[in-house]
Amino acid sequence: MELAYIPSPSHGVLHLGPIPLRAYAFCIIIGVFLAVWLGNKRWIARGGRAGTVADIAVWAVPFGLVGGRLYHVITDYELYFSEGRDWVDAFKIWQGGLGIWGAIALGALGAWIGCRRRGIPLPAWADAVAPGIAFAQACGRWGNWFNQELYGKPTDLPWALHITSSTDGRVPGYYHPTFLYESLWCVGVGFLVIWADRRFKLGHGRAFALYVAAYCVGRGWIEYMRVDDAHHILGLRLNDWTALVVFLLAVLYIVISARTRPGREEIVEPGAAEDASAEDAADDKSEGKTEGTSEGETEAEGGTGEDAGEAGTDGESVDLGKETATESAKSESAKSSETTASASVTKSGKKTEPETESVARDEAGSAKKS
Length: 370
Description:
6 strands, phosphatidylglycerol-prolipoprotein diacylglyceryl transferase activity, disordered C terminus, EC 2.5.1.145, globular
C-alpha cells in the first residue's frame, strides 16, 4: 500500500433533487467561462470591443463540443458500435469522451463563422483567446479525475493516483495521474503564450499557433504514458501521430507568418469607434455635470461672501461718512476763524497806516524849519 497518493472521488455526480450535476460537465463549463473572460480582456487590450469574444464563443463552443465528441467516437468507435454496445451512448457526452483535436478543428470553424458575421479576422481573435483555451483545458482535465479515466501506467510515486473503480476492466491500483500532468502542462502553456505575446508582439495567428505547438509537445509524452485502449500505427498511438503532425504544421505556420506578415495587426472592429465616441461623450457629460455643480457651489459661496462683504462695506461707509462730516465741520470752523482773524489784522493795519504817515510828515516839517 502506498504511503502517499492522490485519492479519487467516490462519485462524480451530485444530485440536486431530480437534477444531476455532473462534475465533468461542471469542469468544462468553468473552463469555458475562464477562456471567455481572459479572451475578452486580451481582446479589449488589443483594441477590440467588449463582448465580441463572448459573441463569437456562442458559435465556437457548441461547434467545439460537437467536434470533440465526433473525434472521440470516430477514433474509439468500438466503444459504441461493437457487439454488445449501445450506440446511444455515443451521445452521452457527460460520461466523458472529448477529443481535443476535433474540438479545435470544428471549434475553429464555428469561430470563423462568428468572426465573419462580426467582420473581424479570425487569426486576431484566435490570438486573443489562445492562452484562455489552454487554461480551459487545464480545468477540463479535472473532469477525468472525477470520472476515474485516462490515467497512466502503474507507479509507486508519492503522487500516484489511486483508482478504486474502473470501467475498462483494469485492476484498481495506483497509476500515473496523467490528467494532472496535462492540466499542469496546459497552465504552463497558457503562461508561455502570454509571455511570448508580450515579449514578441505576436500577431496574425502566431500566438494561437504557439499554443497549439506547445500543447502538442506535452500531449506527445503524456499520451505515451497512458494505458487506455487506443489505435496504434507503427507502434505509436494515434494521438501521438496526430500531435506530431499538428505540431509540425503549427511551427511551419509560425515561421511562414513571421516572414510574410511580421508584427501584430491593428484590430479595426466595426462599431469600435462609435463605442469609443459614445464613452467619451458620456465621460464629458459626466465631467460637465461635476464642473457645473462645483461652479454653482462656488458661486453660491461667493455670493454669500459678497453679500456679507457688501453689508460690511455699507456699515463702514456710514461710519466713514459720519467721520468725514465731522472733519468737514471742523475744517469749516477753522477756516471761519482764520478768515475772521485775517479780517481783524487787515482792519487794524488800515488804521495804523495813516497814523504812521502823519508822524513822518510832522518830522519832515520840523526838520525844514530848523
